[in-house]
Amino acid sequence: MTRRSCVIYATGIACAHLLMAGIAPVLAQVSQTTTHRGLKEITLTEKSQVFESWKNPPSPVYVEYYFFNVTNPEEILAGEKASVKQIGPYTYREYRPRENITFLENGTKVYAIEPKSYVFVPEKSVGDPEVDLVRTVNIPLVVVMNELNSYSFFLRSFVSMFTRKLGIELFMTCTVHEILWGFKDPILAKIHSMKPEVDEYFGLMRKKNGTREGEFVFYTGEKNYLDYGKIDTWNGLRQMSWWSSNQSNMINGTDGTLFHPLINRNELLYIFAADLCRSIHLAYVDDVKVKGIRAYRFVPPSDVLMSPTDNPNNAGFCVPAGDCLGTGVLKISVCRQGAPFVVSFPHFYQADPMYINAIDGLSPNREEHETYIDVQPTTGVPIRYCKRTQLNIILKRVQGFPQTKFINYTIFPIMFVNKAATIDDDAASKMRTLLALT
């Protein structure tokens, strides 16, 4: 079967905060055909039979949050090796409809925004996020120290005395709900009193419930079905400006919600991951079956986060130029207001062993920590995926802050996210029927 012999549409999603966000197969509505009318069915237009499911994906997407609870804060402050214990999951269902849809350039492109909202799912969680406590790095304090690193020693010492007076430590204990959705932080509150534009509340997911990930313009596939779903612009940009090379700044591929039909094992799937501030590629690794449906598994290969020493193409992600971390981690300060955040796969899976060995309590493995997407190759439908991303922060000594005097430079894990979905039984049955007719 050639690429021109048939085209089928269906959709699913993959990202963000490293790729995917929902699955919306509509296979009962779409038939395989060699006619021009059939090609029209795979365009993102109001007349196509797939449009409503693209607009409001029906299949459930679950987001699991796992935290690294710090078990030896005093020893870390004394210069000993950090030890953590994973707790979780705390699971939320994500809703991500597309809104403000507008067709552009004679229907060849479509504009949409994608607001996201989250609802806690207690039966899929280990406990109550409003009760359960987690001890972690005091992120607001570390961000402030990082910001002050270029200021005078006198100012750093003054701020250090102020924080000690308030009893603020390098490690904090708060509820899962607080660290995710926000709490009033004493340091930020003091800064807010002087600079009202600074939010006095902190939370890793603060202001992300009910907010949009960005403004997208997609190709509808009206001209070429191979461009189907590809991003033309994000927030009005065709190229980012954060990184130090044109290649690194490119916005490539789709948003992960759909792929063109007739995918082959030799191609790379490109996805723009807004939460990672970059595009990534996925490569074929294996044939799999999901609910009796044949699929190709695509995963981010090791070269995606490989150090520039081994993969020169990644040199553009070193900002400023030449300031590079090792394999398996990506510093995203450039798109996080300078905060020393680093992303990786969970437990530093595929990362340089030095990051894994710096922390007791980590055990990276492929089954639990690899990101993957299973795509039905004839239709291009994502029928199962797991997007797994870890958030870390750079912990280091800062002159003027005595409590950091003995700590070791560490890429310190805060939490990781597993965003997952699988085709439901009804849609799987319809897909099996459709494929039997092809």
Descriptive notes:
The chain is of the alpha+beta class. The chain has one domain (11-436). It contains ten helices and 21 strands. The longest helix has 13 residues, at 153-165. The radius of gyration is 23 Å and the shape is globular. It holds the Pfam family CD36. Keywords: Glycoprotein, Membrane, Signal, Transmembrane, Transmembrane helix.
Kindly report how far apart the N and C termini lie: 10 Å
Strand content of the residues, in percent? Answer: 25-35%
Number of strands: 21
DSSP helix fraction: 10-25%
How many domains make up the coordinates? 1
Please work out how many helical segments DSSP would assign: 10
Q: State Rg.
A: 23 Å
The computed structural class is alpha+beta
Q: Quote the average pLDDT.
A: 86
Unreliable stretches (pLDDT < 50, length at least 5) are 1-39
Task: Report on the biggest sheet.
Answer: 15 strands, mixed
Task: Explain the layout of strands and helices.
Layout: E1 11-12, E2 23-24, H1 36-40, H2 51-55, E3 61-70, H3 73-77, E4 82-95, E5 99-104, E6 109-120, E7 133-137, H4 139-148, H5 153-165, E8 171-175, H6 176-181, E9 183-184, H7 186-194, E10 201-202, E11 211-219, E12 231-234, E13 268-273, E14 278-290, E15 293-299, E16 329-331, E17 341-344, H8 353-357, E18 359-360, H9 366-369, E19 372-376, E20 381-395, E21 410-422, H10 425-436
Parallel strand pairs: 4-18
Antiparallel strand pairs: 1-2, 3-4, 3-21, 4-6, 5-6, 6-11, 7-8, 9-10, 11-12, 13-14, 14-15, 15-19, 16-17, 17-20, 19-20, 20-21
Protein name: Lysosome membrane protein 2-like
Keywords: Glycoprotein, Membrane, Signal, Transmembrane, Transmembrane helix
InterPro entries: CD36_fam, LimpII
